[in-house]
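Let us practice reading a record.
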Amino acid sequence: MDLQKHAQPADTAPRPADLRASDADRDRVADILRDALAEGRLTAEEHAERVEGVLHTKTVGELDAFIRDLPAAHERPAAPPYASVPHRPRPGSLPADADTSVVAVFSSAVRRGRWRAGRRVHAFAVFGSVEIDLSEAVFEYQQVVIKAVSVFGDVQIRVPENVSLRGTGGSVLGNFEVSTLDSVQSDAPVIYVDGWSVLGNVEARPRRGKFVADILDRVQDKVERAHDKVDRKLRKYLGD
């Protein structure tokens, strides 16, 4: 009897170095380069050249090449210390009137893009759908309360990844779901979703890949602060 040999499936899992780099990966490398500049391990020209390269990398392996010769790249990263969320605003501490109201009755309504999120947002869907997208919003206050009510309707709320998100509410023959988030940044916005649904849906969750501040703004700010620190050290050294 012939024995048939079954071919073993090839291991097609990509190597860690071949994985696509995220904004968080680039931000981590930019932090290491900034510290290396402040410590005098890199010149200003080397730092600028490497940061420029970091912004155009595609894989994790390409990112590692920019910090391979720096000690910080070989240290085991500590687990991020999640910041404690501020206490909920006390009753009466926020205006009763909404800064923004989005209402849909037998229709649909959307608020998205670059808009200013106030302290209180109201969303009402009655036989309709409402979308509140905060992924590109400008946060003027650290705490934002969203009151969401759905009656035979749908309320969808999307937030950036690097905020804290909390929810309090319920549903009657419907769905009320808030995906809790904890930011690692103590000054990150905190969004509270309060509400209820009757034969409807209220859902709040992060929009992956969206952040309150994008990588270019953060890197530019850190580069400027690093240059200022180096300048102060040079002036002190030269006796100015």
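A brief commentary: Residues 36 and 42 are 6 Å apart (CA to CA).
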